[in-house]
Write a structure and sequence with these properties.
Layout (H helix, E strand, L loop, with lengths): L17 E4 L9 E6 L17 E12 L4 E14 L8 E6 L5 H12 L5 E14 L4 E3 L3 E8 L38
Parallel strand pairs: 1-8
Antiparallel strand pairs: 2-5, 3-4, 3-6, 6-7, 6-8
Length: 189
């Protein structure tokens, strides 16, 4: 109920961009679907390690504004995961979560967004996941572009007559309330 479950199924619904409400969090850590197209090298008649399994170690991330201006130089984030080798020409997948925005980017945006309620700033993250095979080969993905809309107080709805306790938002916060004045609760963000 109101929870997103992520799996290694490549046919599951895809979210092509993210939303971060800095009134509630200063960082953003999405799940990415990472695939392994290498074929298995294990010999069932010989007890050997499967050398095509990939151990994911983290990601190299860079963040820009929509015009390409760097908001943070490229940095590395540690994370952990594994991806089994593909089978019969079909890649194997895993859901991999890594922090791609932190307070070094969001703190300056928070000040800007508090002074301009209702504003949304889009940032572009570029993510490259890396690791190694059990056979010792270093591997990395291509760079993946993932846009994130950053806002202040946009993922919460205050029903008519309820005051916001978020600093910087007008009291009451009517920006997201329904025009009919209903006090029914909205779906969870």
């Amino acid at each position: 109920l109101g929870v997103c479950l992520y799996s290694n199924d490549p046919t599951q619904p895809v979210i092509n961009s993210g939303v971060l409400d800095v009134a509630f969090s200063a960082s953003y850590q999405p799940f990415f679907l990472v695939g392994n197209q290498m074929t298995p090298q294990q010999d069932p008649t010989n007890d050997r390690t499967e050398t095509s399994r990939v151990v994911l170690q983290g990601a190299i991330v860079r963040v820009t504004d929509v015009n390409g201006t760097e908001l943070r130089p490229a940095f590395t984030r540690s994370a952990a995961g594994t991806v089994d080798p593909g089978a019969g020409g079909t890649p194997s997948y895993t859901a991999f979560s890594v922090e791609i925005l932190d307070s070094s980017v969001t703190s300056p945006l928070t000040s800007q967004l508090k002074s301009a309620p209702g504003t949304v700033v889009r940032v572009m993250s570029y993510v490259k996941v890396f690791g190694h095979t059990l056979g010792g080969l270093r591997v990395e993905t291509n760079e993946y572009q993932f846009p994130i809309d950053v806002c202040y107080g946009c993922l919460v709805v205050f029903p008519a007559g309820v005051d916001s306790t978020l600093p910087g938002l007008a009291q009451p916060n009517c920006a997201n309330s329904s025009s009919t004045g209903s006090t029914t609760s909205a779906a969870s963000p």
